[in-house]
Amino acid sequence: MVEAVQRSPAAFALFFAIISLVVGGVHYYLWYRLVRGADLGAPLSRAGGWIFVGLALLIPVGMGVGRLVNRPVGRVVAAVVYGWMGLAILLFFLLVTSEVLRGLVQGVSAFTSAPLDPARRTFLSRGIAGTVSFFALALGGIGAASALGKVALARVTVPLRRLPAALEGFRIVQISDLHIGPTLGGAWLAEVVAGVNAAEPDVIVITGDLVDGSVADLRAQVAPLADLRAKHGVFFVTGNHEYYSGVDAWLDELRRLGVRPLRNERVSIGDGVHSFDLAGVDDWNARRFGGDHGPDLARALAGRDESRELVLLAHQPKQIHEAERLGVGLQLSGHTHGGQIFPWGLFVRLDQPYVAGLARHGAAHIYVSRGTGFWGPPIRVGAPPEISVLELVAA
Q1: pLDDT at res. 204
Q2: Residues 294 and 213 reside in one and the same domain
């Protein structure tokens, strides 16, 4: 959708109309249940209506304004806009869940031939509105602490049948979906880099969606990447957000920082026969941006020795279907954020075959990171951020 926005005014108008309908519809529902249904009286109902109109406008207007002002002001704007967005998402899901309770109460009332009178209906609505608001605020606070706190290590052991015995215990440290930009910056990234280095990686991989913004705006914020240290190097593949942020300039900047992009290519990791192949492909949607961008796994694997173990970096989990057919032993992906805010992960499954963690896909393994940062709301509920530490062992 965003790719189309960048190409024509008509596509932008369509995108804006769709977003406005979604945001407007969600805020109307929140007003209907939290204000109108609670029957707060005419003055408070009118005030609540205008408040929700303002909050609905805050999201698209704030996102636009945040990109036009300087970074310190933009971070404040982003915190307000995305903070409300996260709280609105929590309110929406909790209120939708509460419809089950409403239905049960009304069903019992109908079954017992004792329909709810207006006073009892108002009491029920106020009770639900108050309870939902309390839990949304509590979950928002817990989720913000999860998203903005220290990122923990997620240690996973991966058995690979073609791994050389000399590489038993080889350690790949993966970070993904950092989304350096409006809300996350250099100080936070420096802490992540320290955590990665403390895991004593043999190789470090970044599986896309590193940034949300241009090199000119974010060069200083990503500078801590130059401090990453691993015996066999640091590697990167593009995610969809790199293509919204000036992908070619970012590829050059990463090379300057000592991070090697893998664009439909592979490298040997290890020494001589005690080694394996590490391949990387462009993001699934990269072809939409023209030029030489787009995933081409066949090109990355051309001429390789199929007896060697093969690890693939691919931003989106759905790339595992082709990867397994072409002999990949392990695919490392991100993109999903593990759902970020429960129950969003249930909807992610409509687009991606795997959402988080280690899984088998035919003869291959796939590991999907929950992400190291976050996009949009500075909230994670049921999907804590991670620095993934994958220890390879012989199957």
Answers
A1: 98
A2: yes
